[in-house]
Design a protein that fits this description.
Layout lengths: L8 E7 L5 E13 L3 E6 L3 E4 L4 E3 L4 E6 L4 E8 L2 E9 L3 E3 L2 E13 L5 E4 L1 H10 L6 H18 L6 H18 L1
Parallel strand pairs: 1-10
Antiparallel strand pairs: 1-2, 2-3, 2-4, 3-6, 4-5, 6-7, 7-8, 8-10, 9-10, 10-11
């Protein structure tokens, strides 16, 4: 598998289990790229939905993707603190300047005080039936949600206090290089 290069601009492609495109983020700057982890940043980037609608992200975000965990984490930097939006998803793959994953509907929203809520359980159940998710998918996703909640409670990974500072600083460094 190819590895994205630091400072490189890539696209993020989200798919559904049936192979159809779900959403595309046009430009994300790679801050770290290894075979297991990609950390990126974007700000005011164009997002294209499967139905062709478009929108632009409102605030700077640091994005965390892992090749072994079934989730990815978007850290949205707002004036009143960092909000986290987690997609419960397949691990990522990367090729042709595109980071790709399958979105499994469930999402977790984490607030600056580290309280959280699980979203879209009804959407997961509906798509599970419609797209014939394999039986073992429930167990895989449940284990990964437990791991994610453990990270939140322990402030590990992207939830660690110094994570945002370190990666925001690196984002500003690369942004200045590209200006």
């Amino acid at each position: 598998m190819a590895i994205p290069t630091e400072g490189e601009i890539i696209q993020i492609h989200s798919y559904k289990h049936n192979g159809r495109i779900h959403r595309v983020w046009q430009e994300t700057m790679v801050l770290k790229g290894t075979k297991n982890i990609v950390i990126g940043a974007n700000e005011r980037t164009l997002v294209i939905e499967a139905d062709g609608r478009t929108w632009i992200t409102r605030e700077p975000s640091i994005c965390y993707f892992h090749a072994e965990h079934w989730f990815n984490i978007i850290c949205m930097l707002r004036e009143d603190g960092v909000y986290y939006y987690i997609n419960i998803s397949s691990p990522f793959v990367y090729n042709n300047q595109r980071l790709k994953y399958i979105d499994y509907d469930l999402d977790v929203k984490v607030f600056p005080d580290m309280t959280y809520t699980i979203l879209d359980e009804d959407e997961y159940e509906q798509h599970k039936r419609e797209m014939n998710y394999p039986d073992e998918m429930d167990a895989i996703l449940e284990r990964n949600i437990e791991k994610l909640i453990s990270w939140i409670k322990q402030r590990r990974g992207p939830f660690a206090p110094d994570f945002i500072e370190a990666w925001t600083s690196r984002y500003h460094f690369y942004k200045q290089l590209n200006e």
